[in-house]
Amino acid sequence: MEHKKTYNAMELKTKHGTVVIEGPIPGKELQELDFHEELTAFRPAPQQHKAIAEIADLPEGRILIARSQNMIVGYVTFLYPDPLERWSEGKMDNLIELGAIEVIPKFRGSGVGKALLKVSMMDDSFEDFIVITTEYYWHWDLKGTGLNVWEYRKIMEKMMQAGGLEYYATDDPEISSHPANCLMARIGSRVDPESIQRFDQLRFMNRYMY
């Protein structure tokens, strides 16, 4: 599968000033930008800054950012699923994972997350891919937002829907371990029926196990 990356951008006006939503951004450019210290949902900010720069340089890797002047205040990552997850077992070169999306607290509720997904999907090459995301409540900032798991999940679903991702059922044990966890996906318009069938098989791998 050829990995074309077409740069897109838009400006988003928020009450805290204009944010530029853009990408995919190459690793070198990401390293030259400042990375906000509150982007810590997955690991400490300096380590996450380094990690996204490495993802950006993978053949399939894409990083789109929300930038306030020279400061990254949000980002979204796309890359092949982790080899330890079931989603990699189908060895599908046209299945890509939205691995992380994060926005600093100051800009939450300003539409930054939705804009990141909208700009991501402006790239026509996503029509050749199945894009998945796995939502686990233990990654959510319930404490910082004061929301319960269901309120937070509703926000996550709405945000993902802005990028065309929909809810899909699965028997994946980690997702099934809590009813708020979920799988969402977007199947590109040029994905062939055989790939869709393989994706369905990955979603339900336990149906014949007793």
UniProtKB/TrEMBL annotation:
One GO BP on record is: acetoin catabolic process
The N-acetyltransferase domain is annotated at 25-210
For this UniProt record, the keywords arranged alphabetically read as follows: Transferase
InterPro entries the record matches:
AcuA (IPR024699), Acyl_CoA_acyltransferase (IPR016181), GNAT_dom (IPR000182)
Please provide, alphabetically and separated by semicolons, the GO molecular function terms listed in this UniProt record: acetoin dehydrogenase (NAD+) activity; acyltransferase activity, transferring groups other than amino-acyl groups
Q: Which Gene3D superfamilies match?
A: 3.40.630.30
PROSITE patterns tied to this protein: GNAT
Keyword Lipid metabolism tagged: no
Q: Which domain of life is it from?
A: Bacteria
Q: Per its record, how is this protein called by name?
A: GNAT family N-acetyltransferase
User: Lineage of the source organism?
Assistant: Bacteria, Bacillati, Bacillota, Bacilli, Bacillales
